[in-house]
Design a protein that fits this description.
mainly alpha, two-stranded antiparallel ribbon
Amino acid sequence: MKPDLYEEALIILGSQGYCAPQHYPWDYWEKKALAAGVPEELASLGRSVMREAHQHAWGERLQCLCGWADKGRRMIRLALKSPKTADKRWRDLLNTDGNRGRWDEKTGRWISWI
């Protein structure tokens, strides 16, 4: 069976480290999310999370949560079932670069470890 566009992009990314613009796995994930009925802003946010998980080499557990283990199927289900939860979770991951750092009680800000 021929791989779908997401799988082809994943193979290319794994073999050469980059894809043509707009042909990364996260681009195809966003299209699948939109086709499934995920609102545009939330699909864009999910795309960003999937991209950052890869580009910033988040840990294996976070990469699984960000779609890399199942082509993003759980992300789409979460976005459809609990859009507010997905929005908060994904924004938190982006704002903390995958929880790399700690919350500073004195300043009320996230302090990055990198």
